[in-house]
Give the backbone structure.
Amino acid sequence: MDILKIAAFSDGNTGGNPAGVVLGDHLPDVDAMQRVAAEVGFSETAFAAPAGTGWRVRYFSPESEVPFCGHATIALGAALAMKHGDGVFALILNEANITVEARAGDGLVTAALQSPPTCSMPAPAQLVSDALELFGYTPEDLDERIPPAIVHGGARHLAMVLKSRETLAAMTYELDAGRSLMNQAGLVTILLAWAETPQRFHTRNPFASGGIYEDPATGAGTAAFAGYLRDLAWPHGGVIDVLQGEDMGVRSRLRAEIPPASGSSIRVSGTARIMREAG
């Protein structure tokens, strides 16, 4: 089985979140996909096979299948562009149909995904309390302008926005405790953010549900968070830029374009760098 390794949402030729990509004539069985994802060890590996005029796609972390992964979708788009040329590729996920557009050039691939529909709701008070305790934060650490929320854009996340960059940088937690909390609440990640400006955010994404302490770039979380900002009538001006992975030493860049229609798809874009081609 040939596995491409591609870092999505890179900062030029550095940074980004590594993903595995497997292209084949058909999808392997579930046990095989789970085993390969564990062996690759990245936060997600995308498996894709032709299906009609598009591609059937499934995503696996080292410990579980996830319904949607943004950075692995960007990596998949890069792989498809390298194999089939630039274009827009239709993707059939477990719970949604989306697209990814990719164009290769100058050693990098630029790519943009259209997320599944988004929705958000206030986070339950007990979940917020438990999450604050997990990270050693207090309610006073939260930015009252953007209340904690359950956000969804193909996968379910808890979003909590902090008042200071220093508090975000100080994030720490116990992996097993985080896994238990996320699994009990049905969360894929917890998204922690700080608003530098209304259109520029710094984020961190603990991904304990998948056995990963932290993701350096999270397209699904960014899409869900952008949808929440729209629901909140935040002054985003139609687009936000997200810096992630800085505190891991793996700076990543994501852009989310936010159309006005409530619940509509978010376009999340960035660049991808090839770490290892299949062969």
